[in-house]
Amino acid sequence: MARFVDSHCHLQHEAFNRDRQDVLSRALDQLAWLVVVGDDAGASLSVAAMAAEPSTAGRVFAIVGIHPHNASKADDDQMGTVRRLLGEPGVVALGEIGLDYHYEYSPRAVQRDVLRSQLEMAVEVHAPVVFHCREAEDDFIGLVEPVARSLKAGIMHCFGGDAAFARGCLDWGFYISFAGNVTFPKAKVLQESAAVVPLDRLLIETDSPFLAPQPVRGQRCEPVYVLHTARYLASLRNIELDKLAEITSENAGRAFSIPDPPHVPA
Ligand SMILES: [Zn+2]
Ligand SMILES: [Zn+2]
Hints:
Elements (H helix, E strand, L loop, with lengths): L4 E5 L10 H11 L2 E5 L3 H12 L7 E5 L11 H10 L5 E10 L7 H18 L3 E6 L2 H12 L5 E3 L6 H9 L3 E4 L9 H9 L5 E3 L21 H11 L4 H15 L11
Helix pairs in contact: 2-3, 4-5, 6-7
């Protein structure tokens, strides 16, 4: 039995402060490997340190960057930290970067500026990019389209768009990653998107501690819950669970340019 990868979780989040090591051991018991994601310079330092931890090195990787929610905080200092961390071992991508007009925690114009600067950084350092886009598709396309094909790789994390937007991202050569919200009974549009993504561009994630899938919806999400989302997608795509694990784990290794991704025996 192949094992799944959680390609996006926020293990540095305060929701895990009381039992982070237990959550991580459960994850490493069940999954092949996982990717922890920072959302500002401080969190990026934490996730890079997790990826550098010798006892779990090679099974925990990090993504560093400034989330659109935190765009207002993105000064030269923060950007410099992200750029420096991108050269650290175990740091596999820039992210999550993008636009979030749903919450709009940072002003839209600032979000666009910070996305632009981080896209320039991604091209300069040739890093794969993990994108967050919520209710901002038009502006997102306007900013990302011109550089999309020059990126080493693009990953649409926690995909929330319709099938047409998915096709547009696929045309750029991007991967599409689904989180627990694809399992919600009312997520029909999202499920239509999940049905059209070619299997070799499909990724699975938890976005822990957010968006726990059915049937653990409403609880704090953790990486092992990726198996619920995986079961759902396997049935939607009419494919064996084992095969889906093999394909999506291989995709994740390719997307993040991990030369020899760990194949942990079940
Ligand atoms: Zn996100
Ligand atoms: Zn996230």
